[in-house]
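Worked example 3 (structure in, sequence out).
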């Protein structure tokens, strides 16, 4: 968001981003629901709370648009919205 602001010539005064999520810890233990389906260990939902202001009097509408564009280009937001394959490589050494 800060990079996007700089590109647009917006001098930020405040930028605070808090990411939070909810997860079902039963998923970490590989537990099943009552119907026998596995419970995911991943988050059930994710929230991003952004507090932003500009030193130059940029309007709230423009700042909101900046945050939305930055979120649309965020590698983390994109990875969570468009799942990607994870390759797991395990190397075990003899003891």
């Amino acid at each position: 968001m800060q990079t996007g602001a700089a590109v647009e010539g917006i001098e930020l005064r405040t930028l605070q981003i808090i990411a939070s999520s909810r997860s079902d810890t039963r998923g970490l233990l590989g537990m099943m629901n009552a119907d026998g389906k596995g419970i995911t260990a991943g988050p059930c939902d994710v929230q991003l709370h952004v507090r932003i202001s500009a030193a130059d009097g940029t309007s709230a509408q423009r700042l909101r648009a900046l945050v939305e564009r930055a979120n649309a280009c965020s590698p983390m937001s994109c990875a969570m919205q468009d799942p990607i394959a994870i390759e797991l490589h395990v190397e075990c050494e003899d003891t």
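Notes: The first strand starts at residue 12 and ends at 23. Helices lie at 2-7, 60-72, 75-81.
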